[in-house]
Amino acid sequence: MREALSRSADALAYVPHQLGGGGLHEPPFRQARVLLVDDSQHDVTLAKYFLFGANGIDCDLQVARSSPDAMDMLLMACAGGHPIDLVLLDISLPGHNGFALLSQIRAHPYLRKTSVIMCTGSAHEADRDQALDHGVAGYMVKPPALDKFRTVVARVPLLDVQGEGDHLRLVAVSLDRPHPIL
Questions:
Q1: Of 1, 51, 91, 126, which residue is least crowded by CB atoms under 10 Å?
Q2: pLDDT tens-digit profile of 10-37?
């Protein structure tokens, strides 16, 4: 597992950000694994509808309702050899807030490179600045919008939105098997 995680971190330095193209050395893709962390059923439903519904992006979506549940899911996925590619994280969570979870993710040796996008009801500049200081890939204010999500994901290494119209798919570069450019 350490070798796979090491390859994942090392790949960030070698795989170009734009994953499209074609050719002999094109990275193998797989469906991206996304963890939505939000305690509000209403907000989870909105995210599923606007981002991942019938007209949204297809991905392997999982939901956690608290920071401890999210951390457990992240660690279990990592230990199982199928780490989460992207975390959509709310700030307002029961117990430990989203910033506490973000700090835990950044402090963990196997999770620290996990891409995180804050998806929150807070439009406060101080919250946005704190999130950016913790290295998030983006910051979206609820309700989430597909075009904003696509713009933010375009800046996330090893992830890409493929397809057109109603047939969109969030993919990740597969680091599960050796590849010539890795």
A1: 126
A2: 343 333 334 444 445 556 889 999 999 9
* Mean pLDDT value of segment 45-70: 91
Q: What tokens were used for 166?
A: 């109603």
CA–CA gap between residue 70 and residue 101 (Å, rounded)? 8
Give the dihedral sign, CA 97/102/107/108. positive
Quote the pLDDT of residue 171: 94
Question: Which residue from 107, 96, 105, 100 is spatially nearest to 73, judged by alpha carbons?
Answer: 105
pTM greater than 0.85: no
Arch. (CATH architecture) of 2-16+29-173:
3-Layer(aba) Sandwich (3.40)
> In the beta sheet, which residues pair with residue 64?
37
pLDDT tens-place string over residues 33-52 = 999 999 999 999 999 998 99
